[in-house]
Design goal:
179 residues; alpha/beta; Rossmann fold; seven-stranded mixed beta sheet; 5 helices; 7 strands
Length: 179
């Protein structure tokens, strides 16, 4: 796995062996960040990365200069590997939080410009994630939510949906809070 842009572009990241996570492919991350490059000023955004897994999305945002990245992961082995990489790379804006997503969303009082979620594709409540995130109040007024999901899931009928992108087997659906 490598970082595809920003200050740490090209740096190889080696997650701990035996992780259960399915990292977002380099191809899909490049595509996603090409979209975001035209929409956000990285140095002025805060990011929430839910179901962080290997931390690859958080590392991409931090490499591009995001002012704060809060990374949420419930698996102890994953969070340990993420903390190791943060220390090795010297990321100063990433704050890893070892907690499950539902608990974090219930207690969080921070507003984020971008919320990203890459849940396990077989998660039984994957279809509920947009409503959980949008209903939690964690998205800033002009912010948005990006959900990574398998190709067999479709969210274009959701009232907050505004865009879909497909990169091979990786799909991103974008949502805005209703005003």
């Amino acid at each position: 796995m490598r970082i595809t842009g920003g200050k740490y572009r090209g740096r190889i990241i080696n997650p701990l062996p035996g992780l259960k996570a399915r990292p977002t492919t380099d191809f899909a991350r490049v595509g996603l960040f090409n979209i975001l490059n035209n929409r956000v000023d990285y140095e002025n955004i805060t990011v929430l990365d839910l179901f962080s897994g290997t931390g690859s999305i958080s590392f991409e945002f931090a490499s591009r200069g995001a002012s704060a990245v809060h990374l949420i992961e419930q698996d102890a082995k994953h969070i340990s590997g993420i903390r190791r990489i943060i220390n090795e790379m010297g990321f100063e804006t990433i704050k890893p939080v070892h907690i499950d997503v539902k608990s974090y969303l219930k207690t969080c009082s921070v507003k984020y410009d971008i919320v990203f979620a890459d849940p396990p594709y077989d998660l039984t409540w994957l279809r509920d994630i947009p409503d959980l995130v949008l209903g939690s109040g964690v998205i800033a007024e002009d912010g948005f939510f990006i959900l990574e999901h398998p190709r067999n899931e479709h969210f274009n009928s959701h009232e907050s949906f505004f865009e879909h992108r497909n990169y091979g087997g990786v799909n991103f659906s974008f949502f805005r809070p209703l005003k």
